[in-house]
Amino acid sequence: MITRSVASVDSLTWQEQLAGSIRDPKELLHLLELDSLEPDALELGTHGTESLTKSLLGQALSASADFQLRVPMAYLQRIKKGDLNDPLLLQVLPLEEELTGAPGYTADPLGEQAANPIPGLIHKYHGRVLLIVSPNCAINCRYCFRRHFSYQNNKPGRNEWQQALDYIATDHSITEVIYSGGDPLAASDRQLLWLTEQIAQINHVKRLRVHTRLPIVIPDRITDHCLQWLTSTDLLTTLVIHSNHPNELDHHVGHALKKLSNAGVTLLNQTVLLSGINDSVESLQALSEKLFQLGVLPYYIHQLDKVKGAAHFEVPDQRAKQLITKLMAQLPGYLVPKLVREIPDHPNKVPLL
């Protein structure tokens, strides 16, 4: 029985919002009024509303069985009701295209399995390591390159983290530690404070980088306790958010980003170029300008990682280069993100322009 509505989440903690994320495709379609669309609203010709709804629900149920639907209410509030082409909805709605194989698309597109020497740690690039701080995300983006990642083998407890800390401590070439996941901010502030303090005691580690989508999807996650562990050590801290479209950046997100900026945290943004979602100069320009207004510098725009189930999001390289070239003509250089692709076994991300 569906009883929730797209209402305010102001009275809920970030933990309650995370736990209350929508996981049922039927509830998602109901809340967004996509279970009662007229046939011509989707430009599907003579299909009746009933069969259309069953088809859409059937797709979502099938695809979410392979990779679970997960959408927080705070993010759902920004999706336009009744619009199947909403750019935020298209990032999270499971569709049957995910179940169709495509040449070159694999379960491990970045070769991370081979770079995972001990649980919770990935070491691909010189001078930096990545820690899988949490196996959980607040939102399941349908293009996620880790949608098939072996999280069951990469979720060490506090006692088991010592192995990763010893690995970092014995390799003096490592000067930066990156928190990732899942989403690292899905972990508790208590755990993150402990882990950060342990890393700060390793003398050759100078920088901490946190890759997270939580300030975008549940902005209430940026609490005073969160700011404490981000700023209480001598590590130079950078937080890299992940926003793909200007519609994601409402005033709640802006407030969270301003708190981070005011606390002295360097803010960068990474975007994934996605067909039908942000593959236009207008949306990319608006995103860069809005990010900078909120204290965030555009960093990378990634070509899609070729993960199994995401081929329908791909934008051809030629089209991507054309977009960035046009963007360069519209914006100052510091607002134009670098167009890159990550290639397994390559020592760095590869610029495409």
List the helices and strands and how they pair.
Elements: H1 14-19, H2 25-31, H3 49-66, H4 73-76, H5 89-92, E1 121-125, E2 128-134, H6 161-170, E3 176-181, H7 189-200, E4 207-212, H8 214-217, H9 224-231, E5 236-242, H10 251-262, E6 266-272, H11 281-293, E7 297-302, H12 317-330, E8 338-341, E9 350-351
Parallel strand pairs: 2-3, 3-4, 4-5, 5-6, 6-7, 7-8
Antiparallel strand pairs: 1-2, 8-9
H/E series: HHHHHEEHEHEHHEHEHEHEE
Proportion of residues in extended strands: 5-15%
Largest sheet, order of strands side by side? 1-2-3-4-5-6-7-8-9
* Average predicted local confidence, pLDDT: 92
Specify the number of helices.
12
Query: Which CATH top level class of the largest domain fits?
Result: Alpha Beta
Helix content: 25-40%
Describe the largest sheet.
9 strands, mixed
Whole-number tally of structural domains: 2
Which residues form runs of ≥5 with pLDDT under 50?
A: 38-52
State the end-to-end CA separation.
51 Å
Query: In terms of structural class, how would the helical and strand content be classed?
Result: alpha/beta
Give the overall silhouette. Answer: globular
* Fourth-level CATH superfamily of the largest domain: Aldolase class I
In CATH, the architecture of the largest domain is: Alpha-Beta Barrel
- What's the CATH topology name of the largest domain? TIM Barrel
Report the strand count: 9
The value of Rg in angstroms is: 20 Å
